[in-house]
Amino acid sequence: MDSNQKTIKGAQSVYRVLNILEEVILCGDRMITPKELSASLDIPVATVHRLLTVLRQKNFVACDPATKKYHIGDSCLISPRMDVAAFIRARFLPLAERISRRFGYSTILYARSGYDAVCVERLDGWHPIQVFLNKTGDRRPLGMGSATLSILAAMPEDEAEMILTHNEQEIRFVLKTDFSALRGFLAEARRKGYASAQGMLLEGTIGVSHVLRMGNEAVGSIAIDAVRSEQWDKDQPKIIQELQSALS
To answer: What gap in Å lies between CA 99 and CA 90, rounded to an integer?
Structure first.
């Protein structure tokens, strides 16, 4: 709050809630603990916990179950400077980091942009062989690879079909399988709630992805790409379980 502005009498709790929310927004990817909020804002820890509970109930903030740190929630749309890419990084980067650390595969966050998806963050894993199909800032048409199929699968079928038809020529240019296989992967993604495909863009590779939402809107995806192996076959069900647990 601007120090030159006068505090409105009787509105202390409102100021505290807004200051907490502003602090969480400004933390972005880093997230923040109740103790850190208490120290930064000079608010008792018990009060911080109580106000965070209210903000969680209204979905303005969320708590990462692994770290107990807070980040912005799906309803936190009050910052005009926060575009979709910034929202995805702030809201879902902790999940991507956790999956990359645990399983060791390349993990990527995408934001939808019209008929395309833009890579907004790529985390390299610790496996000796990594699959790098995109770098930060790269675009790919929706429908190209498992990473974008989860976004299409979350749309109304007529909208997804319109986009797929629009992008078909560009997709066919790089597709390593036939277009009917792509449609099969898309239909499977609708049934399962996540996308999985292999060999679409690079032979011997496989990937899974899950849609990311802002409220009810599909705004992007989180994708994990790997070289097909026995270890991947063991890890894939665990990766899917973690994605569904965090995002469903």
So the answer is: 16
For residue 166, give the CATH number of its domain: 3.30.450.40
Query: Which stretches of the chain score pLDDT less than 70?
Result: 1-7, 9, 28-29, 76-82, 133, 199-202, 204
Q: What is the pLDDT of residue 77?
A: 56
Q: Are residues 90 and 141 in the same domain?
A: yes
- Does residue 248 contact residue 150 with C-beta atoms inside 8 Å? no
Residue-range definition of the domain harbouring residue 181: 84-247
- Which of 131, 103, 105 shows the shortest CA–CA distance to 204? 131
Cβ pair 208, 188 in contact under 8 A: no
Q: Which residues pair with 223 in a beta bridge?
A: 108, 209
Residue 80 confidence (pLDDT):
46
Same domain, yes or no: 67 and 143:
no
**Rounded to an integer, what distance in angstroms lies between the CA atom of residue 197 and that of residue 188?**
10
Residue type, 97: E
